[in-house]
Design a protein that fits this description.
The protein is mainly alpha-helical. The chain has helices at residues 3-6, 15-35, 50-72.
Length: 73
Amino acid sequence: MTELEALGVDVAIYSTPCLFAAHAAITEALVRLRAEDGRLPEVGDNDVGAASSMALLAANLSRHTAAATMSAR
């Protein structure tokens, strides 16, 4: 049993380390964009590009909208 489990914690959200990682990734991407004169890198199989980001956003929004509609009934 972990220390958090012993305290009765079921879920722990580590937002600060995630924000630090996101900040580092954003900084790296901006440095790369500057070095490449603003040209975006090719999107590889394991990368998340604009199209897949927009699709994920749309899926999350539709799921949220569907849940709100169901709870309003």
